[in-house]
Specification:
Layout lengths: L2 H9 L8 E2 L8 E7 L6 H9 L3 H4 L2 E8 L6 H16 L6 E7 L12 H12 L10 E4 L5 E2 L3 H10 L5 E3 L10 H24 L12 E4 H6 L10 H13 L1 E3 L5 E2 L12 H11 L9 H16 L5 H11 L1 H9 L2 H11 L3 H11 L2 H11 L6 H11 L8 H11 L4
Parallel strand pairs: 2-3, 2-5, 3-4, 7-9
Antiparallel strand pairs: 1-4, 5-8, 6-10, 7-8
Helix pairs in contact: 7-10, 7-11, 7-17, 7-18, 11-12, 11-16, 12-13, 14-15
């Protein structure tokens, strides 16, 4: 066990009563971690889809379910979790190295105000002791309502065997919804997600990747180097991937697709389930498409800094004001001048100074900029069409065609 791992386990790993049940093996090359809250119906389907992967890859993979709820969970959720723990103990699927963590029973519940972030962290942190660190192992995040393809594990093993990048996001497509209205809502939300990623790619952002909790993976060593999973109740995937991108980089894995459920959900303050439900129930839209105008400002700002690393903060601020008053205002609020002076003092090599800038102007700050400029008017399909034209795909004006194109570009074949 290397020193960085020992330090992480001592200082950053989760500290609580939770333990892995179902395996004592310590030589897995991969671990798939699945948080589960009241998932008695959906989890068996998820596990069955994983079990259809080739036996050679299943032998080297720990599948770890974190059954969890807070003390204040509803009686129905607690009862369903009790049933789920019983099912895991008695009806395990053949072919899986299946283990689980009880984060639901009396004395093992998650603390109040905690949620999926802590559940993921418990699973990832406890899995570290069960990995073969001589084999450069990796960790995979999956959700209990998500199905995977038969080539899911082969694609993951192949990716990490052939890249130096430490993180991966997987192509995704939500399954068809039960009603046409709900299906329209989920496709509309996917169009929003995909157009946002496309805009980041066109702008040259190093944070151009999806943040879907059921669709990312990383080398275990890079997980440790990034400080491990955070404990946020929502957006835990966004903040973890942002930190992982800073430490090791993230790229798109191709060759397989994960298929989350399109169901409604109010388990977290925001996210896919809540966005879809709001659109179906009330017509309310909890997200706003970002225009090409906003992404161009981001592109110009990133290029301005990359091409002028020796300029003073004052000079960069003047140039930023000419690009966009919203950008200038954001930089003022973030105290860019002081941050830039520290970067120049601490990083004399240009490549390291640029890396420090990208660490500072990260995914969150990029989003803060984009959301300030996004109100450019126009219909959403027109905003997406403008984005696609900017990327060299002109004349794609129908939403169905836009979504199909973006799916193909983002690995959904």
């Amino acid at each position: 066990m290397n020193r960085q791992l020992e330090k992480y386990l001592r200082t950053r790993a989760v500290n609580g009563p939770w333990r892995i049940v179902g395996t004592k093996r310590q030589n897995f090359r991969a671990a798939v971690v699945i948080p589960a809250l009241a998932e008695r119906d959906s989890l068996p389907q998820t596990l069955a889809s994983v079990a259809e992967n080739p036996a050679a890859f299943l032998r080297d993979t720990l599948v770890l379910v974190v059954v969890n709820n807070r003390v204040t969970a509803t009686p129905e959720q607690k009862e369903e979790n009790c049933q789920l723990l019983d099912w895991l103990a008695n009806d395990s699927l053949t072919g899986l190295n299946l283990a689980w963590i009880d984060g639901a029973s009396n004395g093992y519940e998650l603390p109040e105000k905690e949620g999926v972030g802590l559940a993921r962290k418990i699973g990832f942190d406890l899995a570290l002791d069960h990995l073969d660190w001589n084999a450069v192992p990796f960790l995979v995040s999956l959700d209990a309502d998500t199905l995977v393809d038969k080539n899911y594990l082969p694609a993951l093993f192949n990716y990490f065997a052939n890249t130096s990048v430490g993180g991966a996001v997987l192509p995704f497509r939500h399954r068809q919804a039960a009603s046409p209205t709900q299906d329209v809502a989920i496709r509309h939300y996917e169009l929003y997600l995909r157009s946002y990623l496309f805009g980041l790619q066109q702008a040259g952002s190093p944070y151009a990747y999806h943040t879907i909790g059921s669709a990312f993976a990383c080398r275990a060593g890079n997980y440790v180097a990034a400080g491990g999973m955070n404990r946020r109740h929502a957006a835990e995937d966004f903040y973890f991937l942002q930190q992982l991108a800073k430490v090791s980089g993230i790229t798109l894995l191709r060759g397989t697709i994960v298929r989350p459920s399109p169901r409604f959900s109010a388990r977290v303050p925001f996210g896919t389930g809540r966005a879809v439900q709001a659109r179906v129930d009330t017509g309310q839209q909890l997200y706003a498409f970002v225009s090409a105008t906003a992404f161009r400002v981001l592109e110009e700002w990133l290029a301005l800094v990359a091409g002028n690393l020796n300029l003073s903060a004052a000079e960069l601020v003047v140039a930023a004001e000419q690009l966009s008053p919203q950008l200038s205002q954001l930089l003022s609020e973030l105290n860019f001048g002081q941050a830039w002076e520290r970067m120049q003092e601490n990083h004399h090599r240009k490549d390291r100074r640029l890396a420090a800038f990208h660490h500072w102007f990260d995914a969150l700050r990029s989003r803060q900029l984009l959301t300030r400029i996004e109100g450019c008017g126009g219909r959403e399909e027109a905003l997406v069409a403008e984005l696609l034209e900017w990327g060299g795909y002109s004349g794609v004006t129908a939403t169905a065609e836009q979504l199909t194109l973006l799916e193909r570009l983002q690995g959904v074949e």
